[in-house]
Amino acid sequence: MTAADQLLARTFTEHRAHLIGVAYRLTSSVADAEDAVQESWFRLTGLSEQARADIRDLRGWLTTVVGRICLDRLRSAAVRRESYVGSWLPEPVVTSLTSTGDDPLDVVVRDDDVRLAALVVLDRLTPEQRVAFVLHDAFAMPFDEIAEALGCAVPTARQHASRGRRALADADPPPRVALSEQRVVLERFLAALATGDVRAVLDVLHPDAVVVGDGGGKVRTAVNRIVGADKVARFLLGLVAKYRIDPARVGVVALVNGDLGLAIPDSPGEGTGLVLPRRVDALVVRDGLVVGIYDVANPDKIGHVPFGA
After folding, report:
1. At what angle do helices 143-150 and 154-171 cross, to 10 degrees?
2. Which residue, among 173, 178, 172, has the nearest Cα to 260 in the 3D structure?
3. Distance CA 194, CA 240 (A)
4. What is the 3-state secondary structure (H, E, C) of 80-131?
5. pLDDT at residue 172 above 80?
6. Tell me, what's the pLDDT at 188?
7. How far is CA 256 from the centre of its chain?
8. Single pTM value for the model
């Protein structure tokens, strides 16, 4: 490797965390984010020396390339969703409560706009709206560069970002609350489930509580959204009774995209012969109550999760 190649590799490494952040926000996929960044490196090294020398802003150039790659992946994902079984949820980033944050994704998910509730809303946008909105509003990328990534005119890129912004404003995902408050709510919630009493569970659920499950047709979870505190309480208590599990001991409390949640390994039910398949559960808190539960059980989306680590 020449000195110039070594310098290019070091410079790319300096931008890698930024690029991972861009790609994960755009795709909601750990695997796609890492692949997109790796592909941007291949495209960079595939340029002639003169072409590399002509790049005035390498960070901006790489961001545009990653945006274009992610746009293609989002379009492919949109096609796959047409035949997807049940709800589609983002791939969660799970870290321990004592994580040092060495991985670039550990740093990325500390931002409020990368919490799972926010990514779920981003997934409702068209691929073009998502790329334009994220690149402009999250990374202050100028619209001429966004237009280049989208392959469209600048006014069209502005329009995509504007429509995405309006869609997100209408959705109003709950803001992140302090971890100390989340801890109190999570402990109350698990204790209530352990009682087996519907009233106890209802006391910790927001009236607008919802459960969204993603098993991808491979693992059993809620195929349709379960909406309303009473339906959510009865659904969850039904699972506890069926598998005969202890809610307070079945999972490891962890950070799921920066918020408290549970990493649940394969869990045999006591004396039932049944096994609750591994999953990641992310909780959303509003007004001191659980308002959302995202149950990611599709094994394709949690293969990177360190269960029990």
Report:
1. 90
2. 178
3. 8
4. HHCCCCCCCCCCCCEECCCCCCCCHHHHHCCCHHHCHHHHHHHCCCCHHHHH
5. no
6. 96
7. 9
8. 0.90
